[in-house]
Amino acid sequence: MKTRKFFIASLLGVMFFSACSEKKVDPSEKDAVAQITVLDEAGKPLGGVPVLIYDEKGYAAFQQNRATAALAGTLTLPDGKVDYRLPYQKWFASGSRVVTFVVKEEYDMDNYHIWAISRTIKASEKVEIEFELDKNLPSMPGSGLEIFDENNGHTLLGGAAYLDASHNFVGGDRYSFVDAGAVSDLNALGELKLEGFTDKIAAKPQHGYFVCKDISMMEFPSGRWGVSIDAEYMKMYVTDWLYRDGKIVGIAVQYLIQQPADHGLPAWDTVYDTKLADGGAVTISLPTEFGTCECVPAGNASLQFSYGAGHVTVRTMDPAAVVGKEYRFYIRVGVYYTAAKLRIAA
Description:
Distance between the termini: 63 Å
């Protein structure tokens, strides 16, 4: 009970601050309305439950830190329902938005439940948001999102990827997809895979996918690809088709934004000092359990790489090397890569 009172107090604090810091906005026919319902695992309405509301940027931050403040919030009424108005000027002046509604129950740092529902919403639209707070089901990872195809709403993932009329994921020159095959749920996807990635792939219910930004991917001399440890990628699980009048109009997915594991790689842009008197070389320890190591110089950096068990030695081959000069290079282990620099020290 103390935990629930705490969250209600926090939510009311957010609402009070918003009311004091923003001018009152009169209702408009362009406003969208979210009709929110919260039920327990038995289907009984739950009144007085805080519902937090995030925009795209805020929810991405929330996935990394669940203490992230919401952009807005509301409380369910005794019948477990509440209508929340999303003002046009605040939410939709620049077009449709992906809005995420969150209910969280937190007992301590290690014991909590989070339920999240994401919807692509446009001006003047009414959407139904229904939570069933079943604690026997995993609440995280897995935020829900309905993706409508290009003929029935044209939901955008990351502002660019979409579902075409033939129900293929399309990433264009921004995103690539990997079909991990049939899996039981989002948790079953496991570690990131890059084999067979493409910018267009069929959406299939009960299949898992990895989604990567093209800008974060790099091909190495062996033909293997890696994703930058300084980037993010998405795990996605297609739960079912979406129907309207008996016709497929989209898909329902669960997804999770993840930061790549470093797998023992050096932090991005780590600098290694070496002296010309010592041969202008440095040896870097690397993990062995994720496959072979592979390095490549950035641009025209004159470097030589020598590989051994659990390490790589990087040496400058630049005849014009002087104190203070830096040489950038990339290291791949498995499906991840990092950037580093060799610097000539005095």
